[in-house]
Each structure stands twice: as C-alpha cells, then as structure tokens.
Amino acid sequence: MDFSLTEEQLMIQQAARDFAQTELLPEVIERDDAQRFPKEEVKKMGELGFLGMMVDSKYGGSNLDTISYVLVMEELSKIDASASVIVSVNNSLVCWGLETYGSEAQKEKYLTRLATGEIIGAFCLSEPEAGSDATSQKTTAIDKDDHYLLNGTKNWITNGGTAEVYLVIAQTDREKGHKGINVLIVEKGMDGFEIGPKENKLGIRGSDTHSLNFNDVKVPKENRIGDDGFGFKFAMKTLAGGRIGIAAQALGIAAGAYELALKYSKERKAFGTEIANHQAIAFKLADMHTQIQAARHLVYKAAWDKDQGENYDLSGAMAKLYASKVAMDTTIEAVQVHGGNGFVKEYHVERLMRDAKITQIYEGTSEIQKIVISRSILRD
Asked: Which of 115, 137, 241, 300 could bond to 60 as cystine, CB 3.0-4.6 Å?
C-alpha cells in the first residue's frame, strides 16, 4: 500500500487550496447571506479545469484521476460548499455520464462546453414523490416517433437556474417499471420548459437550487442517452460516482471546521491559558482529527477503486455515509469550541455546520447508503 500523493496530485491540491483562499473566501459570507450564485468564481474554476477534471482532453477536459478530483473537492469545500457542489454535479453527474454513456455526437455537442466551464449542467432525478425511491418516476417521456414529449416536475435540482444542459430521468413505459425509464438531454429554452423559484435553504445557500417543470417539451430522439430503457441504470451508475464527490465535500467541510477550531483554540484564552491546554477542548480536537483521518482514508479508497476500474458501489457508499456523519459531528463540535463566537457568522463555523447537513441527504440519504452497504455485505 502507498498512501502518498504524486507530485502532480500535490500540485493540484495546492492550486485548489490557493484558489479557495484567494477567490472563494473573501465574499463567502456575503454570498451565503444573499443566496448569491458564485458566477465569477465558477467561471474561474472552469478556466482552472475544475469543471471537467476527469474528462478526456480531446473533449476539453483535464484528463485527471478521481483522486485529484476529490483533493480539489476537499479543498474547495473547506471554504465554500456552495461552490464545491457545482464542481461535484458538473463533474460526477453530468460530464461523467455523458462521456461514459453518451454518443459521439452528444459528446461533441455538449461535453466540450461542459468540461471547459463554458456552460454548466444539471442532473434531474428527484421529484416530489420520488426522492430516495428513484423508481417511482412520475415525469413521463412519451415516445412520439422522432421525439419524446416530456411532462412532469423535478425537485431540488442543483444548478437548476444557471445550467444550460439538463440530464432528465423520465418514465417512458410504466408497465416495464424501472426498465421503462430513459434519460434525456434537455436544453434551457426549449418550449414548455420552466424553471421554478429558487429554494430558500438552510445551507449551501449560494448553490442554485430550483424545481423544474416540463409541459409538453419536445425532446429530439437523438437526445436520449443510451438504449431505450437505460435511464434507471444510467442514474444509479452515475450516482455511485457522485457519492464519492459528495463524500469528498463532506470531508472538506469537516476538515475546514477542524482547522478553524484548532486555530481558535490556540488563540482564545480562558482561566489563564489558551483553551487548547484544557483537556475538555484538547480531547475534542483529538476526536475530530481522528475521525477526519478515518473519513479521508475511506474517501480516497473509494476514489482509488474507481481509478483502478474496480467496483466502487460499496466503498463509495461507505465513504459518503461516514464522511457525512463526520462532517455533521465535527462542525457541531467546532461551534462548541468557539463558544459564543461559534454562533456568529464572521467565524465561519456556523455556516459550515449548516452546510454539513445536506451531505447526509443528497445523492442518496444516509439511510440509502446503509441499504447499499448492507445488501453488498449480505450478498457476499
């Protein structure tokens, strides 16, 4: 086993760290307060190659491995999880799905622009009655020979208002169940495609989350990805990789909160000495550091599995389940270490605590991860 990073990976990690500190940190509180999408910051992330990290260079991507991707996700998430989730969705759910399963024509038309950050994408699976139960799709895509007629509603869509390309999961033949589901590429501006109001969220408030409505939207047949009925498998395969990205986001949120708590504990004094010298605080820091290291190894292992061509369903689920718990636990403790200041926005930890919660919910709740894990170990 080799736990060291390559020189290239270390350079990428440092580039992401520098970007987060210089570009994301200065206005992160203001963006959170105003629920402002980081438009300029996203443009710069595209220029750095962060939006198409694992895409082949012939499509404008950075042609990097999954380890490099999670390193970038971790560093960005330490500062701004709203920015990092944009990176996660564009890389894991949109670019990866298109490159892996899309036709050459689809890649030429959409992938290059997505990978370079010229445009960003959205992944549309969840519905009012189909969150964790992804088989219960109410959105329909009726086959009309040369096109599909798309009707329905999608909920909680990241990049919902700012994306130009949407991968929409819809039911074509209800009698076939999950084998009657397709995935369609929908473009912003298609007739009948409406974007609902922006959600007012607890955390990741800079992220652009909307409901989407489809009313007799005509989607050309050539916009279907894969064979007829491939949509559910596409969604599950794509989400399996997406969990690694969100696990890395959770890891970054936890690490960011820990670093702030550690720094504060060495500066804040109580009872005549820095609070780090009090066992009650020192032991909190010890627990936080240990749990973050454990989460990091799970996340990196899942990324390594993916890079090696191994099945990463189990390792990805374990990484997301544990890292999201560590994110929640660590941010709560970081607020506690800060005391009253932890409740104040300028110290950042309260925002990280709010951001942490969503990592236990999206791209498969913690309960869904336990289903994936238990099925895997019982099957073995």
From this structure: 115
Nearest by Cα to 362 from 98, 160, 141, 113: 160
Report the C-alpha gap between 20 and 43 in whole angstroms. 14
Q: DSSP characters for 183-224?
A: EEEEETT-TTEEEEEEP--SS-TTS-EEEEEEEEEEEEGGGB
Split at pLDDT 50, 70, 90, the class of 196 is: very high
Q: What number of other Cβ atoms are within 10 A of residue 249's Cβ? A: 33
Q: How far apart are CA 217 and CA 192, in angstroms?
A: 5
At 70-122, the pLDDT tens digits run 999 999 999 999 999 999 999 999 999 999 999 999 999 999 999 999 999 99
Burial of 283 (0-12, 13-18, 19+ CB in 10 A): exposed
What is the reported pLDDT for 132?
A: 85
327-360 burial: b if 16+ Cβ within 10 Å, else e: bbbbbebbbebbeeebeeeebbbbbbbbbbbbbb
Per-residue DSSP letter, 175: G
Residue numbers annotated as active site: 363
Q: What is the mean pLDDT of residues 169-196?
A: 96
Q: How confident is the model at residue 217 (pLDDT cuts 50, 70, 90)?
A: very high
AA letter at 218: K
Q: What is the pLDDT of residue 133?
A: 87
